[in-house]
Amino acid sequence: MSAGVGRIPSGLALIIPATSFEDCLDWLRIAGENGYQEVQVNLAWNPITDAQLAQLKETLSKFKLTCRTVGCYNDLLQIDSYHFFRTSGVELKKIIAWMPSIGARNVVAWSGSYDDDLLATHPKNTTPEALALLTSHVKALQGALAASGARLLIEPWHTHVLGDEVAMASFFSQFPGTVGCIFDFPNFLKFADWGKRNERLQSMLRHLSKHTGTVHLKDIRFTDGKLSLPFPGGGDLDYPYVLSQLKSLWGTVPFVGEHMTKDEVAPVTKFLLASLKKAGLT
Prior knowledge:
Blueprint: E1 12-16, H1 21-33, E2 38-42, H2 50-62, E3 66-75, H3 89-98, E4 106-110, H4 128-140, H5 142-148, E5 151-155, H6 165-172, E6 179-183, H7 185-188, H8 197-208, E7 212-217, E8 221-223, E9 226-228, H9 239-245, E10 255-257, H10 265-278
Parallel strand pairs: 1-2, 1-10, 2-3, 3-4, 4-5, 5-6, 6-7, 7-10
Antiparallel strand pairs: 8-9
Helix pairs in contact: 1-2, 3-5, 6-8, 9-10
C-alpha cells in the first residue's frame, strides 16, 4: 500500500527499523514506494558484513533515498555488550567508517544503562562513576568520528545515564561538534510528567535545540499508569502543536517517523503530512 501523496517533502524521513539485512532491504523498498526521499537506516543485527553494506548503498541509490542518520543503538556505557539491539562498539566503529560512502553524518547510540533491560531503572545509572565511564567511552570514539567527519547522536531514555535534557546538554558541552542528540520528546516523559508535558517540551527545546542532529516522531500514551509509544497519531499527543514548537528545527535536521509497521507506513505518512501542514511547517 502506498501513501499516494507523491514525493514526500525532503525534511520528513522514515525510519528503517530492520533487525536483519533482508528486512532492511524490504523496508527500503517500502520507503521508496511511499514517496520518501530520506530514511534513517537502523542496522540492528550482527555480524554486519562489507557485502551487506555495499548492497545497502546500492539499494539506497536504487530508490533515490538519502540517509543522513544511521542507527546502531548499542549501549555506550556497556560498550562491549550486545544486550541492546544486538550491536556493540564493534558494529558502531564499522558503521562510522562506512558512513561517508553514503553521505551520512550522524550515528545513533544510547547513553546506556547497567541494566540489560533497555527500559529498566538501575540505581547506578545516576552515579558519578557511570558518567565517568560513559565519558571515557565517548572520548575513545573521537578519533573514529573525526576520520569519518561523523557525529555521534545519543538517543534519550529517561532511565539511562543521561536521563534528562540538563544532563545531556552538560555532557555535550565536552564534545562540541562531535556529539549531540536525537530530539525524542516522548522518550523523556515519565508518567508524572504528563500533566506538564508542554512545559517539559519547552525545557527540552531550550537545552537541546542546538545539539539536535535528528528529530524522532512517535506518540505516547499512558493507560493505567503504563506507558506505550505508538506511531504518530496513535497516542495522546497534540501532534500539530508539538510540530509547531519544533519549527526552528524543521529544514535543518531530518524529522523521522517511527514505531510503525510496514502496513502502517501509508496512513501514518498521511497523518504526518497533514500535521505538518496544520503546524505551518509545509
